[in-house]
Design a protein that fits this description.
It is built from eleven helices and 17 strands. With about 350 residues, it is of the alpha+beta class. It has two domains: about 220 residues, no CATH class; about 110 residues, Arc Repressor Mutant, subunit A, CATH 1.10.10.10. The strands form five sheets. A five-stranded antiparallel β-sheet has the order 1-8-9-13-12. The protein has a four-stranded antiparallel β-sheet with strand order 4-5-10-11. The longest helix has 18 residues. The radius of gyration is 20 Å and the shape is globular.
Length: about 350
Amino acid sequence: MQKKDLHPIKTQQLKLDLFDLDPLLDKNYSNTLEIYDIAGKFLYDKQNKYLSSASADETEFTRKVAYKEFELKVSVTAANIERVVDGKTNRTFVFPGAREEIIEDVLRKLCTENRAEAYIDTAGNHKEGTKFIGISFTLYEIFLELKRVGKSYSYSEIREALTIMNRSILTIKNSDGSMDLTAPFFPIVAIADKVNPSETKSFVCFHPMVTELIHTQKFKRYNYLKAFEYSRHYTRMVYKRLCHRWKQAGPGKPYSILLSTLIAALKDPYPNLYQDKALFEKVFDDLKESGVLSEAKMTPKKDGKKITDWLCDLYASDVFAKQMASNNKVANRVNGKESEGALEDNNDLIEF
C-alpha cells in the first residue's frame, strides 16, 4: 500500500479531534489505547531482538492477554531488513523493541496536538475501503521530542525504527473469533530525504486497531512524560496499564491482578516463577518510589504446599488517585458522560 492510495475522510475528522489534548495544560500528557496498550507487543531482550538467521517459529512471538471476559492472542512477526554492521550490509530479522515503542509513543503524542488525519484506502479488495489514521512529521521533530523526554536516538536509528515498524506484523485475535486484525505496526511509511531531516516531511499510518480505537473513543489520558522516566521497560508497561485500567483508583480500592496474568501479557516467563516474582517486585518498587503506589502486596496462591501463582494487590497513592480522577473527567467529557460514576469499574483479577 502507498500513500497515494489514501484519501482524506472529512466525516471522521470530528471524532479524531476528540483525541486531541490541550497543548498547554496537557503538554506532558498523551493517550493510552484500550487493548492495544495492555499487550506486550515489544521485545526488550536485545540478545533476541536481532536474528541473523532464524526458523519461521523463531521470527514470531505470542502473548496471551486477559481482557474482561476474553483472552486475546497478540502475535508479532519480526521485520526483515538490511543492517550495516562494521561496514558490512547484512539481512537481519528484527523484532520491535524499546526504541520502536518509544518512537511510536512520540508519534502518538504528536497526534494529540491536532495533527492526526483520517484516511481511507480504496486500493484494496474491501468495497468500503480500510480506514487509517496518519500523521506527517519531520525527523527533526522526533529528534527534539525524544530529547525533551530524556531519550536520544540518531536520525539513522529513527529511520531504522520506522522501517522495523513498517515491516513487523502485529496480529490481534479474540478468543471468541470476533476480532482478527493483522497488519504492520505502520502499514504506510514514507521517510524523508536524508539531506533535509529538519524540513522534509515524513509520514506514517498506524495499525488498523489504533485507528479503530481512536475513532470509537477507546482511549484515556495518561502522564506520558512520567512514563518515560522509568528506566525499567516493564515498569513503563505496568504504569500504562494502571493508567488505562484503574478507573476507580482510591483509598481501600486495590488493583488486583495475578502475577501469571502480567507475565502472559508482557513477556516470556522465566524458567522459575520466583524470578518473575523478583522482577515484578522491582517494578512495584519503582512505582512506589515514583509516587504512583503507596503499597504493593503479593500473596502466594497454592496447590497443596506448592506455590503456583501470586496475587498482586496494588494500592494507589493519594497523588495518583487524584490524577486518575482528573483523567476520568477528561474521559467522561470525551464520551459525553456526566459523572465519574458512569465509568465502568475495572478488575483485572481473573480466577482460574
